């Protein structure tokens, strides 16, 4: 039985993750020095040194297999690595694992088995081989019915990936909606998907803006109706004006005019919402030499 204190000690000595430290100790009968060597042999200690780096580049990708579809974002430190075949192979391996298994969380996905052990093991091996931090950021899986169609669009080799699901509409229509979503960045699919707290916060901001603009207090509520409608047009896929429309029809109307309804949309843009670290060139070169 490997104690928690022993795992903690090994982690402090190597910087490796808790699961990796536990596995190393199990493989070496709890001998710290042997466990350190085991981690080094697996390239995990080297990978751990890169764990505090910021990985905001990478790939967003999609895999569709019959009635199953998966979308994923895997991050790297540089664009150069994101274009590496080793990195692309890693992304495809993870996508296939998602498609073939019932997985709900990142933790479950990282612990899923593959030829190299677990997905976590595979990522660690790729970090050691490629020499950059790699992180699995997020994923989603959609299962469709026979009446539904998937649409997919990948922009700029994986900078943006959009997966759509439409009912009673063709895959070509679903792809057009995915292309629109890539360009127009909707946050939600439908009005009812906007959380109440988010909407209330927006209304407070709108009211403050109207007051600051000098609008009459008794007119603010009526003006607010129009501003909320405009907010929905900005953030909800169904309510946005379709980019290819010549008569100002919404995306929802475009899909309805082609016999269908929008069921779901997932849009991943690489690095969105992540803070990118800026360093000068000399510091980065020094890190590469020492790291």
List keywords for this structure.
single chain, 291 residues, alpha+beta, Helicase, Ruva Protein, domain 3, Tetrahydropterin Synthase, Chain A, three-stranded antiparallel beta sheet
CATH topology (level 3) name of the largest domain:
Tetrahydropterin Synthase, Chain A
* Residue share in helix: 40-55%
By DSSP, the count of extended strands is 8
Residue stretches low in confidence (pLDDT < 50, at least 5 long) are none
Name given to the CATH architecture of the largest domain: 2-Layer Sandwich
Main-sheet strand order equals 1-2-5
The major β-sheet equals:
3 strands, antiparallel
Fold topology:
Blueprint: H1 4-14, H2 18-27, H3 32-41, H4 44-49, E1 57-65, E2 68-76, H5 79-82, H6 85-100, H7 106-110, E3 113-114, E4 117-118, H8 119-130, E5 135-143, E6 148-155, E7 160-167, H9 171-184, H10 196-212, H11 217-235, H12 251-257, E8 261-269, H13 281-290
Antiparallel strand pairs: 1-2, 2-5, 3-4, 6-7, 7-8
Explain what this protein looks like in three dimensions:
- By secondary structure, the chain is of the alpha+beta class.
- It folds into 3 domains: 4-49, Ubiquitin-associated (UBA) domain (Helicase, Ruva Protein, domain 3, Orthogonal Bundle), CATH 1.10.8; 57-170 and 266-290, Tetrahydropterin Synthase, Chain A (2-Layer Sandwich); 191-258, no CATH class.
- It is 48% helix and 19% strand.
- The chain has 13 helices and 8 strands.
- The protein has helices at residues 4-14, 18-27, 32-41, 44-49, 79-82, 85-100, 106-110, 119-130, 171-184, 196-212, 217-235, 251-257, 281-290; strands spanning 57-65, 68-76, 113-114, 117-118, 135-143, 148-155, 160-167, 261-269.
- The strands form 3 sheets. Strands 1-2-5 form a 3-stranded antiparallel sheet.
- Helix 1 packs across helix 2 and helix 6 packs antiparallel against helix 8.
